[in-house]
Amino acid sequence: MDSLAPEAVEPLLTGRFGRPYVYRESCESTQLLLDPSLPEGAAAVAEEQTAGRGRLGRVWEATAGTSVLCSVLLRPPTERRFAELSLVAGIAAAEAVEGATELAAQIKWPNDVMLNRRKVAGILAEAREDVVVVGIGINVNQTRIELPPSPHTPAASLRTIDGRVHERAPLLAELLARLERAYDGWRHGGLDELYAGLGARDFLRGRRVSVDGTSGTAVQIDREGRLEIDAGGEHVLAESGDVAYER
Ligand code: BTN
Fold first, then answer.
1. pLDDT tens, residue by residue, 185-206
2. Interval between CA 53 and ligand 1 midpoint (Å)
């Protein structure tokens, strides 16, 4: 098993994100390891979580040593919408996954990264005092039987998709560098700044969806991070929620 210990990852860091680098072999959730007084870009990483958190109160499960489990502390400007951070991190995760697999990744609004129509990464943004902790879980080297069952959005790992065992340290370093770049762009110009990368990777566009009672065809992710749905001619903007979609 490869390692995400500081000696494997810190030499690969190229920017401010990942400093300081808080590492645990096992913890409850990396979301809980970052004190709000730490500098922006501080990252917490673990090989295993005993109570990994997913969106909407769900759990995030991953066999020890198979994944990237990472949380990053951000201090976004007050004029930005914090909900957009899931998409900002989604772009960074999609880019990192594409770099590792040489396959095109997509972003399923509001927080999933998809490869070959399967979820390989999820994002959880949690606000705390004046900071936001953005958690990113990437399924990297799980075998098929190690993946948790997920009835709504089928799960995969990079390994089950491309058949290769991936080194996690370079993937994590790439993720942190991509996140820093996307976040800096967003701070400066909002989602507008990242829109080319987002629009081109929009997984739901053109699919039949249902979001918290609104059903229709997904038109696009708009420039404020909402999902525009054509519900029989009426255009509805979903701010957040749980999406059911037609595969
Ligand atoms: C989701 O798809 O529901 C979001 C999953 C987020 C999982 C990551 S793993 C690292 C960080 N720590 C957690 O407990 N959750 C996030």
1. 999 999 999 999 999 999 999 9
2. 5
